[in-house]
Amino acid sequence: MPVKVTETWLASSQVAGLRGPARKAYETFLDDLASRGCAALGYRVTGPEPLPRLCVKHLRGNDRVVVAFENRSSAWVLLVGPHEDGDPGRNVYDRLYELAGVTPPPSWKRTRPSCCSETGEAPLTSPEVVDDLVLRARAVGRKHRNQFRR
């Protein structure tokens, strides 16, 4: 079943900064996501809700993409960016936690369960939670954009 893929405003602005092989890796991923759904992703995020309903794919190098499935035929690209542990301003997971309104404890151990269930189903995120994440993505993008203008 084909999946309709939509980017948040924040993801679109992050993708606009991708060049060369990084851009190609993202575009290849989008095609794969549209045709294979959750099988195109690597793992689910662990932690409090809504994190376990979100999936991540390693694109190229440190680049990651975070996706939420609203239903079996609709996915949202929430974030695209590098996983940079040493630079909180550039760490896609820090942005994700901000987006989800979650503050991970310092000893939080992330695991990587498969994105798809054993029956091949995507972890669904309720439309209300997806709407909230999309709105927060806009606010987070605006906040970070304004920080760099000072």
How does this model look, in words?
This protein has a single domain (4-149), classed as YaeB-like fold (2-Layer Sandwich), CATH 3.30.2310.20. The protein contains 4 helices and 5 strands. The protein has helices at 9-16, 20-36, 92-100, 127-149; strands at residues 4-7, 43-44, 54-58, 63-71, 74-82. A 5-stranded mixed sheet has the order 1-5-4-3-2, with helices on both faces. The longest helix is centred in the last third of the chain and has 23 residues, at 127-149.
Taken as a percent bin, the fraction of beta residues is: 15-25%
Overall radius of gyration: 14 Å
The largest sheet is: 5 strands, mixed
Q: Give me the CATH superfamily.
A: RelE-like
What number of structural domains do the residues give? Answer: 1
What is the H-and-E element order?
Answer: EHHEEEEHH
Assign the structural class, choosing from mainly alpha, mainly beta, alpha/beta, alpha+beta, or little secondary structure.
Answer: alpha+beta
Unreliable parts: 146-150
- Overall shape: it is globular
* Number of E-state strands: 5
Compute the number of helices: 4
* Oligomeric state of the chains in view: single chain
Mean pLDDT: 88
Q: Share of helix among residues?
A: 25-40%
**How far is it from the N-terminal to the C-terminal residue, by CA?**
46 Å
Q: In CATH, what is the class?
A: Alpha Beta
CATH topology: YaeB-like fold
Tell me the CATH architecture. 2-Layer Sandwich
Q: How are the strands ordered across the major sheet?
A: 1-5-4-3-2
